[in-house]
Structures are given as C-alpha cells and as structure tokens.
Amino acid sequence: ELTAAIQNFNFDHILLNAAGVMCQTKEELDTVLASNYTGAVVTKSATPALREGNPTPRYYEMAQNLGTINSMGLPNAGFDYYMDYVSQKQTNKPIFFSIAGLSKQDNLDMLRQLEASDFEGLIELNLSCPNVPGKPQTAYDFEATEAILTEAFAFFTKPLGVKLPPYFDIVHFDMIAAVLNKFPLAFVNTINSIGNGLVVDPQTDTVVIKPKAGFGGLGGTIVKATALANVRALRDRLRDDIKIIGTGGVTTGRDVYDHVLCGADLVEVGSQLAVEGIGVFERLENELADILTAKGYTSLDQVRGQLKTI
Ligand code: DHB
After folding, report:
1. Is 212 within the bounds of a domain?
2. Looking at 21, 69, 129, 149, which residue is catalytic?
3. Is the bond preceding residue 211 a cis peptide, omega within 30 degrees?
4. Which protein residues touch ligand 1 with a CB less than 6 Å away?
5. Ligand 1, atom nearest to 70 Cα
6. Contact call for residues 105 and 138 (beta carbons, < 8 A)
7. 213 within some domain
8. How far is CA 210 from CA 58, 67, 270, in A?
9. Domain range holding 105?
C-alpha cells in the first residue's frame, strides 16, 4: 500500500504539492484535491492580508530541467481567503493550511484564529521563506524558532508542523533537532528552497529574475541531494512520533523512493509540478509502484528509513 499516516490523518497516496505551487487560488487547490494521485493538498503560505508579491519576472526554469529559481515574495490571497476555502470544502483528503507571517505576532495571530476555527486539518508553520526583502529565514535563528514554538504551543492544540529551510552543517542538524524535539510537533517538512541562489542568462549576461537583484530560492533537480541529506539527518535526530514530509528535487519515481528510503512519510512536489502540471502525480506514483514491484516490496513500510550505509 502506497499510503502513510500522521497522527489520526490517513493519506491514501504519499504525494502532494509543495506549498507555493498550484495552491494560490481555490481553483488551483481544487485541481490538486481532485487528482486521484494526491494524498493531500497544502495551501499557499498565507499572510494576514493579501499580498501581490514581488515584481515579475519572479520565477524561472533552468535549461535541461536542472531546476528553478524564484522570488515570489509571498503573493497570496490572505488568511481569510484560505480559511474560507477550507471551511467550505467537503473532502476526505487532509488539507495542510500553510501560514507564513512576516513577524512572530502575525504567526501567533493566525494560529489563534486557526485554533478558534472549525478547521480540522493540519497546520504548517512556514519558518523558511527566503524571498521577502529584509526578512531573514526564521529557522536559521534557533532561539527565534524556539521562542515562536514556545509561544504557539502555550495555546495551540491542533496538529502543527514546521516547514524548514535546508541546513548544511552537522552541528546545525543537531541544533534544530534539539529545539524541535522539545515540542509536540506532528510533522516537520524539509526542505524549503535553497535560499538566495543566483542564475545567469548567458544570452544577455543578466540575472533571470527581477526581485532582489536576481537572488532567489532554488528548487528542482539541483536541490535533491541537499533535500535527502536533510530528510535523513532529521529522521535520525527527531522523536519517532514527529513525521517527516520530504520535499525537494523530485522529478522521478526514483526520487520519491529515495526520499522514503531516507525517512520521508509523505513527499511533496514543487518545481516539477510547476514544470509538468497536475499529471506529474500519476506519473510519479506509477514510476514508484514499478520500482517497488521490481524490488518485491508490497508496502512503503518496507522501505521507509531503510537507507543503508557502506
Ligand atoms: C515564498 C517562497 C518560499 O520559499 C516560501 O517558503 C514562502 C514564500 C515566496 O516567495 O512567495
């Protein structure tokens, strides 16, 4: 069975969109929900009020499907729009409500509204947006991360997880895991884009996106090894009851399989969903099923976390 669970939530498929891709409008969210190959949907990270985001061009696909760079700047329809969507929606598929306030207070305000609401899905607190000028990625500040989670869990009782940026140092894996293990988190989602990359257009000798003089978050093929390292490092360090959503560099069924081998429970698709469209989920699930069949496995439980060292 190609299924997974987080607490009382059962996922009939392990794939879903990564926040930011195909989830800004109700129509896009419906498209992801309606797929027969998605286990859930995650909403575009919300801020309290609507945002237009950064100037365009703000998203670019590299040649040869190497990956993407973006500096969207949190364009979103505002918290109430997504709250209205999840309130109206009749579905058995779990919904992740993503929030990305520009301050601790914004995040705590949105969490209070979610706590008081009838929303019965999961909540993803995005501590890793790299694209708002002047706003650092919270989860690179371990004290700030502990502070917001301490204040949040003082009142928040619904299933809450965090979206993390990639870490690149073993000591940082140890430090973030030590913070996260202090809290009753339902899940951790790793990785967000690799922040502040830069891509050059060889025809024009220019950057390829307008915001932040060309600096933007990297996704797709080029981030896969970093994503797997973060999934593996966190699976090794977090309490068993904190589930892991693996995100980053998924373009094939083998990539999904590798995330699961490293310890992922669910796997998200960002760049390749933007490149390929909603059909990506059927292709990836079929490719994953073929790999499992070829290896003689009947369940992802036989694979999850079973990466071998040499
Ligand atoms: C945006 C990018 C991110 O990686 C993120 O976590 C949140 C928002 C953006 O630019 O819109």
Report:
1. no
2. 129
3. no
4. 20, 45, 71-74, 100, 126, 128-131, 192-193, 217
5. 10
6. no
7. no
8. 6, 18, 21
9. 4-53+74-192+220-302
Residue nearest ligand 1's atom 11 by CA: 74
> Residue 72 Cα, ligand 1 centroid: separation in angstroms?
6
Number of domains making up the chain: 1
Q: Cis bond leading into 95, ω under 30°?
A: no
CB neighbour burial string for 32-55, b if at least 16 within 10 angstroms, e if fewer: bbebebbbbbbbbbbbbeebebbe
Q: What is the pLDDT of residues 90-146, one digit of tens each?
A: 999 999 999 999 999 999 999 999 999 999 999 999 999 989 888 889 999 999 999
The reply to whether 68 falls in a domain is: no
The backbone torsions φ and ψ at residue 250, rounded to the nearest 5 degrees and listed phi first, read -90, 110
Q: Whose CA is nearest to atom 6 of ligand 1?
A: 129
CATH number of the CATH domain containing 233? 3.20.20.70
pLDDT tens digits for range 157-198: 999 999 999 999 999 999 999 999 999 999 999 999 999 999
Ligand 1 centroid distance, CA of 131 (Å): 6
For ligand 1, atom 3: residue with the closest CA: 129
**How far apart are the CA of 162 and the centre of ligand 1, in A?**
14
Task: Pick the atom of ligand 1 nearest to 193's CA.
Answer: 4
Q: Is 129 annotated in the active site?
A: yes
Give the three-state DSSP class for 208: coil
ipTM value > 0.90: yes
Q: Is residue 67 part of a domain?
A: no
Whether 70 and 217 have beta carbons less than 8 Å apart is answered as yes
- What DSSP designation does 307 have? P
- Pocket probe for ligand 1: among 17, 24, 45, the residue whose CB has the most ligand atoms within 8 Å is 45
The atom number, within ligand 1, closest to the CA of 54 reads: 10
**How far is Cα 192 from Cα 61, in angstroms, rounded to an integer?**
17
